[in-house]
Amino acid sequence: MGGEPDGFERLWTPHRMAYIEDGKSRPKYEGTSDCPLCAKLELPDRDALVVHRGEHCYVVLNLYPYNPGHLMVCPYRHIGWYTETTDAERDEMGVLTQTAMRVLQATSGTQGFNIGMNQGAIGGAGIAEHLHQHVVPRWMGDSNFLPIIGKTKALPQLLDDTWEKVSAQWKAVAG
C-alpha cells in the first residue's frame, strides 16, 4: 500500500462508527429543560451524584466514569463554551478543580490525573451544550484493553459508595 511507514500500529475499530453516526442525529439540548447536567440541579445531591455546590459551579460524579471518582466541574449556567464563562465562573472552576484533586488524593491515593474539557460535539463533548471539566483520577495499571476487546469497563467501586466517600472528604477538605 504505498507510502512510508510512520511507526504506528493500527487498531481498527469499525464498531465505533455507530457512535459517530448517532452523534450526527442526536438532538441538541436546547435549554435547561432537557439538559442532563441542568436536570441534576433539581434533584437531591445523592440522587444527582452532586458532591459539592459552589456559588457559580457545582461538582458531580460522572454517571459513566472512566475510573472511580471521575468528577465533572460544571457551571450552573447552561453554556457550552469555555469562552462564554464569566470571570467568576472560570475562577471557581479552577478552585473546584484543585479541591477535587485534593479530595481524590485523600480518598483514594490517586497517583495522577487527566483534567480537561472537550469543546463542541466535534471536540468529543458528550453533552456539548453544557460546559463541564473532567477530573479523572489515575493509578498505575488502571487501564487495559478490556474496554476495547470486551466492550466492558471494570470499575471496582459502586457510584453510590464513591459518592459517599467523595462527599464526606469534600466537606473535610473544603470545610
Q: What does the model show?
A:
By secondary structure, this protein is α+β, with helices and mostly antiparallel strands. It has a single domain (31-174), classed as HIT family, subunit A, CATH 3.30.428.10. Helix 4 (87-108) crosses helix 6 (159-174). Strands 1-2-3-5-4 form a five-stranded antiparallel β-sheet. The chain has six helices and five strands; from the N terminus they run αααβββαββαα. 34% of the residues lie in helices and 14% in strands.
Widest sheet, order of strands: 1-2-3-5-4
Shape: globular
Strand content: 5-15%
Number of helices: 6
How many domains make up the 3D coordinates?
1
- Report the average pLDDT across residues: 86
Q: What do we call the CATH topology? A: HIT family, subunit A
Computed CA radius of gyration, to the nearest angstrom:
18 Å
Class by alpha and beta content: alpha+beta
- CATH level 1 name: Alpha Beta
Specify the CATH homologous superfamily. HIT-like
Query: How many beta-strand runs?
Result: 5
Low-confidence stretches: none
| Corresponding CATH architecture | 2-Layer Sandwich
* CA-CA gap between termini: 62 Å
The portion of residues assigned to helices is: 25-40%
Sequence of secondary-structure elements: HHHEEEHEEHH
Major sheet characteristics: 5 strands, antiparallel
